[in-house]
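Action item from last week, closing it out:
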Amino acid sequence: MKLKIALVALGLMVASALPAAAATFRFAFQGDLKSLDPYSLNESFTLGMLSNVYEGLTRRGKNLEIIPGLAERWEVVEPTRWRFYLRKGVKFQNGEDFTADDVVFSAERVRASGSDLRTRIQPDTKVVKVDDYTVDFVLSAPNPILHYEWDTWYILSKKWAEANNSVMPQPASGQQAIYAALHANGTGPFVIAEHQAGVRTVFKPNPKWWDKPEHNFDEVVLTPIGNDATRVAAATRERLRRGLPGARPWCVEHPMRKETAMIRTLFETDGGTTALILRLALGAVRTWPAAESAPGPGPAGAAGSTPPSRRASTRVP
């Protein structure tokens, strides 16, 4: 199986053992970020990239456990009623406050015509605003995994969408792009400073983010390059321009499927050789130099051990 799923990892903006100084992270991918509307396409790379800009009520921890996101906590008030307590003080990137109105709006929008993520919330689920920072989800029957995929159900600003004629989602097959397909306004750790579909997308840190960044990027640049050989050549040219040796092959292993493949995406710093630690929607892949034997098994969902001089840390913004 091709490594397409594994390369979703690049959507996290994860890097390893980088110098303390701020840095520009450039990478290429075979696909393109076709739409910035988080409901247009239920596809791993798109959702992974947009997770840096938008956030859900929940998110996944480093061991893939469900942890609080835009919701500080939640409880099952009764078998068919879940109550979510929203995080206060969160702002969208345009300065608007995040409130329950945005959650109710997003619940309606994600189930609307044109959305490719309609399965995130069942059609008969009622979403009720209790107060500005409390929302109830009333179900027709008990559902113990109601929030299982909500880390990729991203919350949009109601006011922003209404002001920019983006109340309805951008269909993946739509011929004319709406404002939300070309612009983004989330609560996440990065903002999209520039987006040219098919050319490049530039991310910059969000100074209004409510959480603590775990990266040292001042800019991240995605360039879509469909051809594998061209993509490797571009990476090698950039490395030579920086006075670094050519790219080395690395192996990756998907923790769930136990598949192994080789990639030629490697970044080095003056501090030594490092590799991207790739995290998927289902878990983190392990990486090691192709010239070396595979490392021993690590904990579930975590990167396997590598020689101390090449150990990489997963840093998720």
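Closing note: The domain at 6-30+189-310 is CATH 3.40.190 (D-Maltodextrin-Binding Protein; domain 2).
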